[in-house]
Amino acid sequence: MRVLMLGWEFPPYISGGLGTACYGLTRALDAAGHEITFVLPRPVDASHASHVKLISPEPPSAAPRPASPPGAAPVPPPSEPPPPIDPGEAARGQVDEQDARDAAERTVFEKMRILDLGVRAPSVYGDVAGPESQPPALEAEIARRELSLEREPRPGGAPLPPAGREGPVREALRAAGVDAAAAGIEGEALTREGDEYSGDATEIAARYAGLVLSRCRHEPFDVVHAHDWMTYPAGLAIARITGKPLVAHIHSTEFDRSGVHVNQAIYDIERRGMHGATRVIAVSYLTRSTCLSRYGLEPDKVKVVYNGVEWAQPEASLDRVRSRDKIVLFLGRITMQKGPEYFIAAARRVLEKMDNVKFIVAGSGDLARRMIELAAESGIGHKVLFTGFLRGDDVSRVFQMADLYVMPSVSEPFGIAPLEAMCHDTPVLISKQSGVSEVLSHALKVDFWDTDEMANKILAVLRHPPLSQMLREHGAFEVRGLTWEGAATRCAAVYEEAVAASRRAAV
Question: The whole model's pTM is what?
């Protein structure tokens, strides 16, 4: 199967579980023989993408390479790929870009390449900082591209759909809910140094859609796979103009990120993407339920594919740290969705009954400062350590230091971090409001708001070594069955179903 995959994160650019999921899934799909073209919205230096076949605007310091004809394989960069390094160097939480670059994965993918559109990617949590920049001669470029598209056959020789007076590009963008003037179409000037987009995430998603239409219409593929809402306009547009089916992958919804105070524009994009897709993949039955109840999808359309985890035995040099104090760990983005305030509240209750406990909060986010203040106001500031962002061996080390990992998420579509903790031989306590709770039997579970019960279960693990040992042994065995290979097999089945449904609809 040839897959055009649209994603906002991929190593070395990772700001959370989405990038980790994209990496694990594409690697497993690649190993299974599927051909993946991954479309990123930002420049990727060839030295950071030696594991893929790269199509990218040249970095300013590089000599230009000859252009490839439409549909042909790109000319490979002349330099030799750098040696492999540990993929665990990719960051969790909001990351520093240069640190993430240093952590680039080098594993070779045989059938995968990255198509880079050269767009500056926005933060999920705020606007993009940078100079204002607009595509030159926008209307003329759109018109020129439309005339070109109208004269060209689609992949496989299929005729273009009727476009009326708008032209296929404008019609596809309009159907995807994107104004052509907001989207723009890539011109030569957009690949030169200093050309960056600025604006909020919805604006950049619209521009990404325009560029995907411009750059990907010659790419051979059987199905479009779009990850999360920022890629849905692009997925809808390219699917419409090529006649290929769209699979929308739901890693999170606006209700997970914002609770009941949703951003209406983002909700509208999510709803349009889900309804416009041929099939929808949800990362859990919890997320599937949200898709059905909040977005009005038909049950048969939404398939559940659980995330996996990359099992890696911790390095021998990273021996489990022993100390007099017990260690309880929170690792993740410090945001409303992750429930850090409930972790602090449970910590206060634990310390009322057990003094030799330290609590580590690892990560960064918009609530980090407030959590530091909350710990101080609760009188436990000296017992709570805020580490900030961690990566690589530091992540492995903090997992191995911990006697218990706690994920008190308010709404967690899945949650990969508990699986990673179990891979590091660390027992976990997770909220019942998480997708991962559906697949873990050997984990303690609690309602995120029940901080008294959360504290009781933390104390049970810290005070009773047999319980801790049982969770470690059975958890390690259980997590080995949650693989990206299994997720890739199920995704491939969804692709086949989407292609078959698309062909039936075309008859």
Answer: 0.77
